[in-house]
Each structure stands twice: as C-alpha cells, then as structure tokens.
C-alpha cells in the first residue's frame, strides 16, 4: 500500500502546484490591464482625484507581489474582497450562488450518470447494430449542439407550447426541495442531454477496448457465461475508465453551466461571472474564476486518484 | 380515428410485413419498433405526436436522400482515387460534406445571395415573414434571412481564423517538442497542463473581461486557449511516429529537426491532424457562439448567429421559433463537421489494423 | 509421445472435414482457410506448423467452435465426440469450452485477468461446471502446480498475475487448462514469447502433464524443433491450406513436399568461419569498458569487444541482457557513462549529435522490424537515394544511377521498385530495402539488430546469404545482434555472450561452440531446441529437471 499512498500524495501535490500557478495567472491577468484597475473601471472621463481615491482604497501603491500574497491568503480563508460595483462582500454574494450551481450540477449528474453508463455499456455490447448506429448519430448531434440551442428547444416544446415545466429557473432559499426540483428541471435536462452524450461515448469506447483484451477471450474460451464475463472479468477492470469518465463529466457540468444558467436565468455562479465580466467587476471575476478552476482541478484529481485506487497492479504490489 | 391515423398505421405495418417477408432484418426491426413506439406515443400525445413522428421521418428521409444523391454526385465528379474513398463513406459523412459545402457557398457569396444588407433596417421590429422577408425581421427590423446568410461569413470566418491560428502555433510547437524532446518538450508539457486545467470558457471570460471584446482580441484569446489542446494532440501523434526506427535511422544519418518534421513526420500525421482540425474547429465555433450569445463575442451590428439568438430570445416565450434558426444553423454546421471527423477517424483507425 | 503406432486403434476424438473460414477485410469476406481436414484420437498430440498467416491459430480456435471478431466459419464440419461444433448453439459450445476442450494462449501475461488471483481464475471453470467444490479445486490446483514444478505450489496461486514471472504464468495457464481434466487442449504458441532458457522448462512441464493425464492436444507453433519434441504427428500449413501430414519421425526424416523440404533445409546453411587477421591490425570498432544506464538503472557494465573488417561478430543474449543497449551506445543514441568507443583507432564522440557526417556515414544500422524501419509514406527511390544525396551530394541522373545500382545489389529489379511505397512490398523485400539504405552510405560497419527474427525461415535465409555476399564484396564488418543460436551457428565468426548487462564469455565461434563452456553459455546452448525428437528427453536426462530454466539461472 505504501506505493499507492506515495503516488496519490505525488498527484495531490501536483494538483496543488497547478492551482497555485493558476491563481498567479488569474491575479496577474488583471495586473495586465492597460493602466491599472482604477483607471480601467472609472474610464477615461474620471477625474484624477477619483482615480487616486480608488487606488488608495484598493491599495494599488504597494508592489504586486505583496498584493498577490495578501489576495491569496484572504482567498484561502474565504475572503475575496469587495465588489467594485455594489461594494458588498464578494464571498457572501458568491457562497449562495455557488451552492445553487452545485445543486444544479448534482441534480443533472444524478440523472445523467446512471443513464449514460447503462447506455454506454449497452451500445458497447451491441456495437455495430442499428441501435448503436442510431445512438452514435444522436449523441454526435447532441454534443454538437450549443447548450442554448437545446435549452431554447426544451423551453419551446416543454414549457411554452405544452406548459409542462416552468421556463425560468428562478429559485430562492425559501422554496421547498421539490419545488426547486421542478423549477430546475429544464436546465438540468439541458445539461443531462449534453453530458449523457459525452459520457455514453466515452463509456462505450472504454468498454470496447476492454472487451478486446486477451483475458476476456480467455474467459470465453473457459466457457464462462456472458453475464459473468461482464460482472466478473470486465467490470473489475472497467472501474478506472468509468471513474475517469464520471469525474471528467462532472467537471464539465460545473463549468459548462455558464451558458445554461444564462438561458434559464438561474441564480448561479456562472451567471454572476458573466454579469461581472460585462461590468468589469474584477474582484468578482477573479473569485469566480478561481472557484471554477479549483473545482475543475479537484474533480480531475479525483479521477486520477480513483484510477490509481482501482488499479489491481498498484493495489497488490510485487 | 381519422384517415391520417389509419393511413399512418397501415403504412407502417405494411412496410414491416414487407421487410419481414424479404428478410431485411435491420429494416424490419426499425420499422416494427417504430410501430410499437407509435402506439405508446399515440396514446400519450394523440394525433400531434404522430404528426411529429411523420414529419421527423420525412426530414430524416429527405436528409438521407440528399446525402445519397450527393455522394453519388461526388463519386462521379471527383478524380479516381478520391472517388473510391468517398464511395465507402457512410451517409452521415456525405451529409456532413453537403452541409459544409452549402455553408461555404453561403459564406463566400453572401452579398450576392442575401437580398438585403446585414445592418439594413427595412421593416418594423419583429415583423412577421412575408414575400420579401423569408424569415421575418429581427428586433430592429432587419431582414432575418439576410443576416443568417451574412452570419455564415462572419461567425464561421472568425472561428476558422481563430482555429487556424491555434492550430498553426499548437501543431508547430507540438511537432518540434516531439522531435527534439528534452527540456523544450518537458517545459511545454508543463505549461500546457496548467493552461488546460482552466476550463476554456472560464479562461475566455477572464481574458475578455480584461482585454475587451474586439474581434482581434477574440481571435487571439481563442488562439491562446486552444493552441495547448492542439499542442497536446500533435505531440501525441508525432510522439507515436518519432519512436519508429525510420526516425532513428534519419537522426543517425545526421538529418536536422526541420527535415525530420517535414519529410518524415508530417506525411505520416496529416490524416489525424486534419481530423483534429475539424474537431477543434467545432469546439472553437461553439465557444465563439457561446461568447456571442453572452454578448461578449462578435459585436453588433455585425450579423452573428450567437448574438442573433440572444437578441431574439424573447420571442421564444411567445412560441416563435425565430431565435432557434440561428441556433440551429450553428448546431447543423457543428454536427456536419463532427460527422465528417467521425468518418475520418474511423478510416484512419481502420487502416491501421 | 508414447505408442504412436497404436493411434489408429484409439477412439477418434476430433474430426474436422473440409473446414473453410472467412475473414472480413475491406468490406468483403475473404476465405483464409481453404478446406482443411484433421483427425485427432484420444491422447494424441498433433503439431500444427506453418509460417505467419498460415491460419494455424484460426484452425486451433475453430476446433473449440470459436472464431475471433471479423472471422466466420463458412463451410465444413467440426465433429467433437459426436457433436458438430459448426452447428451447435452458443450454450452447447460454452458447456464444452473449459470442460472438454481447453485453451492455452501465447501471452499468459495478457490472458490472465489482472484483477483476480491465479487460483481464483483456475477454479472458475470447475466450480462453474459443478465438477468440483471450490476448496477441492484449490487443492487440485496446488497439486497441478506441483506437478508442473512451479516454485511454492501451495502459495503461488494466491498471487496476482503481475506478481509472477512469464515462464511461471505460462505453466499456471497450463494448469488452469487442466483444471477440468479436458479431453483436448489447444496450445497456441505457448513458448514463443519466452526466452530459450525459460522455454525448455515450460516445454518439459507441458509434455509431462499431457502425458500423465493422457490428454489429446493440438500444439500450434512456427518452431520446427519445438514441435518435434512435443508432437506424435505433424501437419504443415501454408496460407490456409494443408501441405502435408505425417508422423513426427517420418516428417523429419523423409518429407514429401518441396515446401516442407525447404523448411527443413534452412537449418543446414553454414558459412565458412573467418579469423582475425594476424599481427596488430586495428579493429574497425573497438568497444572499451563501457557502462551505460537508463536514468538510475544500470544496464551495461564494463562491456568490451572488438570487431575487425570483413568479420561478423554475433552478440547473443536473452531479453534484458543489454545486447541492443550496446548497439545504442555504439551508434551514439545512448552515450555511455564510462569507457570509450574507438572507430578505426580513433575515439568517437559519445553522442551521435557530436559526430561528424563522415563518422555517421561509416556506421549504419539494419533493423529488426522492416515495417517500422521504412517510412511508409516515402518512395523506395527516396528512401535509398536520400543517404546517397545526403553524404555524397549526388543528384539527378547520377543519383538515379546509384539507386539502380543499389537495387541491383539487393537483387530487386530497379524498374519495378523505383517508384513504389514500402507498404506494397513483402517482409523480405522491405528488409532488403533496409539493407540498401545502409549500403547507400558506403559504410564500413553495419549493425544488424535481429534482422531475421521477424521473417519466415526461407526469407530469413535469403537475407543471411545476401548479407554474406555483401560482406565479401565490400569487406564490411557486421555486429550481429540475435537471440537465435541457429543463426549464430550459420553466419558468425566471433561470438559475444551477454547476460544482465555484462559479457559472460567471448571468442571465435568454433571455440565457443566446443566445451568446456562458461556455465551460462552451457545453459544457453543446451536450451536451444534441436530437430531431433529425442533432444528434450536427452537434455532432461543429462542435466536433470532441476538444472534447467529459472532454477539453473538462480544457481549461477
């Protein structure tokens, strides 16, 4: 087990370093603004006094390195400073919205993961049948469509024309759990459509790769029945690719949510990011980007660790 | 019961029986499962559901027919070797080729085809379709059809340019890294890992918030975000080639890096690289469309599909499909490119075995 | 092996008649096995032999009623104990496999499921068929492991496949095939992936156990000497068709068909041995005390040998012995960490990047896999012409003349091959193009890295003869890397034996092949199968079962 622990720690360390580098990128991107933040936010027409006051307020007179570590230190403790537009605490505004986004992603994942894996395994088993061909065309179409296209189609047919579901996913903290679920159904479904297509294709190719390996042929030649080949010979070796598929798509769910949130006017962190980009509210942009990147890296990390833990070669060292 | 429903089931069951009689297994399975599915859909959705099935089947049949005819057309007009390749192509691929060709013509000859200019206000806001305006007017009273045609030029052109830039830098760096190895390879690998661990749309939003949303910055930002992806792929493709003995033989002969890339590696990696170009293009195209939809991409009054969706989005709540047309145009092109790429990847993997 | 003469009286077990199998290629079905007949009695061992593409494995699998993806049985019948396997349904077939007919695959490492312990995979079939209870079957597995002379038979089954060595895995797989005491086992090249010293051990184990349980077997291989040890009768295959079938002794001594005769005669090619020039002639290449390492792993230690002009030095060793690494040091791909390499008495820079164009030109290389050694997207004229242009600046008509000359040298018609691509050529032709590319540089020294091991025997012999002729014509020095001692016998002048990165022994060939040997050389030499059907029996008697294979290696 010692080896596994070592490999996992190495991978965790690498993830941490990547996150640090990304925080540098996010911070220094804002430093690259023509002029500086104060000038950029207030515009050309601002008086010198106003600009100077803002500089004072943001502490721009100090060197960038000092401000970076201050920013990072605060960010680690959950303090992202104040919004330039509303002057409110960034973290308090973000936390509720981030929870909403995670809820939406989870909602979509709970539907998508089982469906996608089941369909992926089925298409792999029935490969080159009409079922597989139709699934191939359908998933390619779904992957190729922009999220807003799928979103508006769902709104048109499931909301406006038929009235089954609400078209806008406006939720707030007072709503009950099931009411939230109902209101969020269409955005969740949009994401499910895209993610299921991705996951299904990845699962299919992973399983097909696996079924081509000599030990599956050996099992067949030993007279092992079909269902047992899947459960006993294929599945124990399929965990690594399947975990990988799930984690990658969860990462997509959390970050790909931006467009869906805008279509359905969902109060999530993605929409907040878009709003602050338009308003050039840099502290909020930085905070959102850092959170998205951290989630993304964390999920990729989870995929790698999962793959390491399920690898029999590593679990039973020589 | 009315004549439509009776005719509908008669046709399906009759066709199933014929397929069964002639032992066309696949066709029979498809037809009969459609029949069974129609029973359920008919009960739940009533006649409209059956109409929906009929129309969808008609559209699919039309697309299949067009693809079939287009493939035969290509087989006849193309030179010998290429026509043999096209002959074995699935219908989806020839459908893709047909769509791409149509878009290319629309984009190249936009001013000739479009009846009005892209920024020309000719009517009232959201005016309905008439003889002059095939698809009606948009929120400012501009001709929707003309703007869609011009969009083929603007949206696709921008995505193509950005992809080309990303591809050029990514592929060159990837090929050099694979050939030279050593510290350059290592360093590039690390940089690419970091850049790729930021989700692309988030990275794009961050950079656009800082550098503004002019067309030039858009192209550069997308180039920066996507070249690492191209780098990783071309590094992997070339990585499989540089371990070959013929590369070792050329190195031991004393050949330079440039010769190795040009004469030994590139000829063997064109197929996967072209497929990758198609794939990257559809990613870039979707990203640009997404950014435009968020109002951060191509700026008005230039006609662009992504922003057209956003500007006309309110119409959806009135049950109009107008905003879906530019969105569909985006989806159709990406689907088409993906169909072609799928075919190319299948071919290059099939030839290896 | 016993009482072959009685085989006709024994009960017929498997009868294949006019078997035809098709493979799917380029959107159509092509016949790959053209009507093969086969009879096998209880306890009989049939050797199925042929070159690659002969359809041996396909027939072997078909004997279990199994075809790989993209293949189908298109005609004929396979009768096993009264059941026709071509018409049986999947359930009936599944109930035969493992229980009545078992399979031993070429690569044991890939054919054991990495997620389960050996013994759990062993007991799977018996428990499935309710032949034995799990514990009973485990006991039996240990007994079989013991009989197959696996170390720690009580414990080894509880390990995972990646924790066990290749030769042991192959024996564990044979034990697994025996688990239900089948009537027939298909051995599909079970020792091809193993080194010779390991192979002998596995061969001995397989032969014993098949004998003990009186199991019938189909033994598929391309190695004549191996099949001579194992089989009662031999069937020779060529491109999906049967050439001839006879009992082992008759087949070896008196084959009828020309093709079979040509296979047998390959082994008799021998070249006159040359000796070093007298006096203090300067060797073309002199490797002096080199060490080399991949990262922190040391792979070569204190390696020295000389190669003189016009002579062939064979470097022999099993996988991991460092013979190819030595070649990489000479070419400069892997700069040695210590020692030096002299070329005509002058020290070479250690990395190829620092060598002059002329130094690079002098030493050329021919590779094992002609497929990967020639760029598939470059024409033959360019492949051969490039070195001539690169080193000597030839162009236009002069270059064309030179390419024609080189194609003539390697016995290929220039007009036919000038504009073709490597993918259009056969394996032997590709290897000839590789030789022409090396010659185009006018070298004085050529490294031949296992140049014949990927080729069928007849073709390989042609290549060896060509290399020999070229050596005489241009006074070339060859470094011949190989694991095949038969090749060494036929063409080497001097032999260097390597093991685990060190040189064990070196000297002129005649001395090396006469005793007394170094113990490792002795083990290596005695492990190479010979055509004599009694060879394995004799070696086992002489050395004893505990003095072969891994056991013997450990003692050293």
UniProtKB/TrEMBL annotation, chain A:
Residues 98-303 form the ABC transmembrane type-1 domain. The chain crosses the membrane at residues 12-30, 104-126, 147-164, 184-200, 238-264, 284-309. GO terms for biological process: transmembrane transport. InterPro entries: BPD_transp_1_N, MetI-like, MetI-like_sf. It is found in: Cell membrane. It is a multi-pass membrane protein. GO terms for cellular component: plasma membrane. Keywords: Cell membrane, Membrane, Transmembrane, Transmembrane helix, Transport. It holds the Pfam family BPD_transp_1. PANTHER family: DIPEPTIDE TRANSPORT SYSTEM PERMEASE PROTEIN DPPB-RELATED, PEPTIDE ABC TRANSPORTER PERMEASE PROTEIN. Belongs to the binding-protein-dependent transport system permease family. This is ABC transporter permease. It comes from Candidatus Sedimenticola endophacoides.
Automatic annotation (TrEMBL), chain B:
The keyword Oxidoreductase does not apply. The chain crosses the membrane at residues 6-22, 27-44, 50-70, 91-113, 158-178, 198-226, 277-298, 324-346. It is a multi-pass membrane protein. One of its GO terms (cellular component) is plasma membrane. It is found in: Cell membrane. Pfam families: BPD_transp_1 (PF00528). GO terms for biological process: transmembrane transport. The keyword Cell membrane applies. Residues 152-345 form the ABC transmembrane type-1 domain. Keywords: Cell membrane, Membrane, Transmembrane, Transmembrane helix, Transport. It comes from the Bacteria. Its main location: membrane. Belongs to the binding-protein-dependent transport system permease family. This is ABC transporter permease. It comes from Candidatus Sedimenticola endophacoides.
From TrEMBL, chain C:
It is found in: Cell inner membrane. It is a peripheral membrane protein. Pfam families: ABC_tran, oligo_HPY. GO terms for cellular component: plasma membrane. Its main location: membrane. Keywords: ATP-binding, Cell inner membrane, Cell membrane, Membrane, Nucleotide-binding, Translocase, Transport. Residues 14-264, 285-525 form the ABC transporter domain. GO terms for molecular function: ATP binding; ATP hydrolysis activity. PROSITE patterns: ABC_TRANSPORTER_1 (PS00211), ABC_TRANSPORTER_2 (PS50893). The keyword Hydrolase does not apply. This is ABC transporter. It comes from Candidatus Sedimenticola endophacoides.
